[in-house]
Specification:
The complex is a heterodimer of chains A (320) and B (295). By secondary structure, chain A is mainly α. Chain A is built from 15 helices and two strands. Chain A has two domains: 49 residues, no CATH class; 238 residues, MetI-like (MetI-like fold). A two-stranded antiparallel ribbon of chain A has the order 1-2. The longest helix of chain A has 34 residues. The N terminus of chain A is likely disordered. Chain B folds into two domains: 73 residues, no CATH class; 215 residues, MetI-like fold. The chains are: A mainly alpha (320), B mainly alpha (295).
């Protein structure tokens, strides 16, 4: 290798280099790139991108997995728009999202409190984060007990309060009463969410507000209330907007685990969400095509919200 | 306005501000203390119930706070809940599934993240865009075809079916890529000059520098997989492959009103999560700030 012919020009030197390292550097880098990417890319293609395409195809067929799939054209989507259960479950999903603004107010209040120079901040942050960390089946079973009308924590407390003011008080049948099942899930969601991710995002936003803005408003003689609305609120509005959008996107896909464990979607379908309906259609009744159609409806809704977010947020760019 | 009056005005406003600060602090402590009570109370209720006798759960006493302390601490509930259903098996399954999913995800995501962040190859931007595009696709969309695929492969009701679909996520790749982009390039250039291979750079420079991001992804994936209910519910149908959440739901369906046992079992399901959380707390906070979303 060492004796490259002297007669050649640059071309030959290049060629000699090529022989020396085997490959051009950029080719080597590209090869390395593909090698690093490959394991993830294969899995990504098999379990994410191809299924997305397959799901779209599925939404145009009727298939129960036992008999061969039959092409159905737009029938699934027509059925979707005529299915009054579907619209009821859409309404349930949106109703349950009432918890979002309430939770955001709570998260902001907690973040404001934690933003004071306070002792034991780590302790408070930990306890407030506990319910978020422990979400899941165990917590839903716990809340089923808490909502028990006879000996659950809430109704015992309500009864105790009644004793205190000498009025016989009885709490509702939280999870078995159509009127109360959704509020019950919302209350539980508030407990889980207030001290969680949103609170930490708010806290980070509050800590990012420059001190001198407050000093300037001090000099102008603003009181605490005015400072909040004139400085704090506008400064954290991108965070508020981000949290709201993310929560709405999450809200459309939420509600399966809790309802499955606590109410089974009842009473009378009052806690069945879109996600629960997809699960039932796909894995209980094996209407694969119809379930895929609903999931695409969900996707389109989320897509539109995301686009809106990018359009509006593009003007007040904030990256997290 | 004379100088003296200005001074008194200033002093007045300063004392007013100090009073307000004290008030604000007091309000903050109040909010946080009441909040902490509300956050912790359900857990204490859970612990108390898990140590009661079955009869004690159903009878409520007056005044209400008497209910909080079990009369006799029935530690036996914890033993019994392991006997009623194959809880040890569920535990083992959850550990296997969670460990393999987490390891697999951190491993493949860090490799692909490195490729996207640092290596030049044809089609890189397009493929990355493809990854980004799937970030907002709801899990419901892919879940149905993946289930059909697993059924076709005969992987329904297997560990493969439980684990593999959770290993390759666009989210992990995206998050690590974002982090790798922030690392200084000088070290890598120096290593390259010293003749270090790409894998050497990845292994000896990138990964050690990325410990916080890796820890964050590990924590999120661990928690997410440990708690995941819907996918195991869909994929698995034989009892010996149940993970803890599905097992617990199954337990509930069998013993709907055995509250003491249910609470004991729930406590045990939460224990590892609490441990992970307490030791990795700061990674949660960092991770949330880094990506804005939960894993």
């Amino acid at each position: 290798m060492g004796t490259a012919p002297v007669t050649g020009g640059i071309d030959q030197i290049e060629a000699a280099k090529k022989i020396k390292t085997g490959l051009k550097n950029s080719t080597k880098e590209a090869l390395a790139g593909y090698c690093f990417l490959l394991p993830n890319l294969v899995g990504f293609l098999v379990f994410t991108s191809l299924p997305v395409i397959a799901s779209l195809a599925l939404s145009f067929v009727k298939w129960d997995l036992l008999t061969p799939p039959a092409f159905a054209g737009l029938k699934n989507f027509v059925q979707l728009f005529q299915d009054r259960f579907f619209w009821k479950f859409c309404w349930n999903t949106i109703y349950l999202m009432l918890g979002i603004p309430l939770g955001m107010i709570g998260s902001l209040a907690v973040a404001l409190a934690m933003n004071q120079k306070i002792k034991g901040i780590v302790f408070f942050r930990t306890t407030f984060f506990l319910p978020t960390i422990c979400s899941g089946v165990a917590i839903f079973i716990l809340w089923r007990l808490i909502y028990n009308p006879d000996f659950g924590f809430f109704n015992v407390l309500i009864r105790g309060f009644g004793d205190l003011i000498h009025v016989p008080l009885e709490g509702p049948n939280w999870l078995t009463d159509e009127k109360w099942a959704k509020p019950a899930l919302i209350i539980m969601g508030l407990w889980q969410g207030i001290g969680g991710h949103n609170m930490i995002l708010y806290l980070a936003a509050l800590q990012g507000i420059p001190r001198d803005l407050y000093e300037a408003s001090d000099i102008d003689g603003a009181n605490g209330w005015q400072k909040f609305w004139a400085v704090t609120w506008p400064m954290i509005s991108p965070t508020t907007f981000f949290i709201a959008i993310m929560s709405i996107i999450g809200g459309f896909q939420a509600g399966f685990d809790a309802a499955f464990i606590m109410t089974g979607g009842g009473p009378n379908g009052s806690t069945t969400t879109i996600m629960y309906y997809i699960y039932n259609n796909a894995f209980q009744w094996f209407n694969m095509g119809y379930a895929a159609a609903i999931s695409w409806f969900l996707f389109v809704v989320i897509f539109v919200i995301t686009l809106l977010y990018w359009k509006v947020a593009g003007k007040t760019v904030h990256y997290y | 306005m004379s100088g003296k009056r200005v001074q008194t005005e200033l002093e007045k406003s300063r004392t007013r501000r100090m009073q307000f600060d004290i008030l604000k602090k007091a309000a903050s402590y109040l909010v946080l203390s009441v909040g902490t009570l509300a956050m912790v109370a359900p857990f204490l209720w859970m612990l108390a119930t898990s140590l009661k006798t079955p009869g004690e759960v159903f009878s409520y006493q007056r005044p209400w706070w008497v209910d909080w302390v079990p009369t006799s601490f029935v530690w036996q509930n914890y033993v019994k809940s392991w006997e009623v259903v194959p809880f040890a098996r569920f535990y083992l399954n959850s550990i296997i599934v969670t460990l393999l999913t987490t390891l697999g995800q951190v491993f493949t995501s860090s490799m692909s993240g490195y490729a996207f962040a640092r290596l030049q190859f044809p089609g890189r931007e397009k493929i990355f865009l493809g990854y980004l595009a799937t970030l907002m696709i709801p899990s419901a969309v892919t879940m149905i075809p993946v289930f059909i695929l697993l059924r076709f492969l005969g992987w329904v009701d297997t560990y493969k079916g439980l684990i593999l679909p959770g290993v390759f996520t666009a989210y992990g790749t995206f998050m690590l890529r974002q982090f790798f982009m922030t690392l200084p390039k000088e070290l890598e250039d120096a290593a390259k000059i010293d003749g270090c291979s790409y894998f050497g750079i990845f292994w000896r420079i990138i990964l050690p520098l990325s410990k916080p991001a890796l820890a964050t992804l590990t924590t999120f994936t661990f928690m997410g997989t440990w708690m995941n209910f819907m996918w195991p519910l869909v994929v698995v149908n034989s009892q010996e492959k149940f993970t803890l959440p599905v097992g617990l739901a199954y337990f509930q369906s069998l013993h709907h009103t055995d509250w003491t046992l249910l609470m004991a079992a729930s406590m045990m399901m939460l224990a590892p999560i609490l441990l992970v959380f307490i030791f990795n707390q700061r990674y949660f906070v960092e991770g949330i700030k880094l990506t804005g979303i939960k894993g």
